[in-house]
Hints:
The chain has about 300 residues and is α/β, with parallel strands linked by helices. Helices cover about 40% and strands about 15% of the residues.
Amino acid sequence: MKILITGATGFVGSNLTTYLEKENNDLQMASVRYFPEQKFDFTEDAIIHLAGKAHDLKKVSQPLDYYQSNFELTKQLFDSFLNSDTEVFIFMSSVKACADKVEGVLIESNNSDPKTHYGISKLQAEQYILSKTLPVEKRVYIIRPCMIHGPGNKGNLNLLYQIVNKGLPWPLGAFNNQRSFLSIENLCFTINELLQNKDIPNGIYQVADDESISTNELIEIIGASLGKKSKILKIPSWIISKTANLGDYLHLPLNSERLEKLTENYVVSNEKIKKALKTELPISTKQGLSITIESFTRNK
């Protein structure tokens, strides 16, 4: 299959490229950005649109950056897809297009209510895609992944790894949260299945590993991967919260935003995509996390 991938140099894109090449696909990489009245001439069998503006933890981006990169550019690509002979369009959205906070378990039919420019711009792109009449021969999939991890991935997983590897105690043991993760291996497998299986219905699909785990469990998984005993302290949550608030002003390693990321509940259902795929995901939650953690050890 001849496949065009936007955003192929990013974390997801580089892993997906390697995966799809092993499946003997003919891959084309496209570097795209928004320009007014832009059109594309597609000749491939499928388009995987990964490019976009991600979360900006330093808060230096302008709101317009998100809407141009995530919404306007996607509109241009999708319109060009509709006017081409290309059969498959896969858009990489996010669970954040539906909800920034989750009570219970997030499913695709939940009412979408994003609060950030990132989430709103992704939702606008989704809504535009779904508003168009799709020719019978074309297939369109909107993927909403949760927190993706894998070899080469940075972020909070790497921070937790550094804490355990240095023998430091984990001070947030009093927070008993549950959250979903997504191994890059399971994500690549899912995308490949969407490309190959013409029987999978069009629509929105959340993608997550089968099991949700707590941050405390994650600390223990990291310790086991390193062959070290993890140290978990249950410091009262109010003390931690006050410290995080101070971190907002004193630029400490722990601030309120990072505390929320490390301790929030965010459980995502993958039942719809698994039912559509009619198969199990290749690796379990703990297997995927162990692979990621072991990559940190190799690359340190």
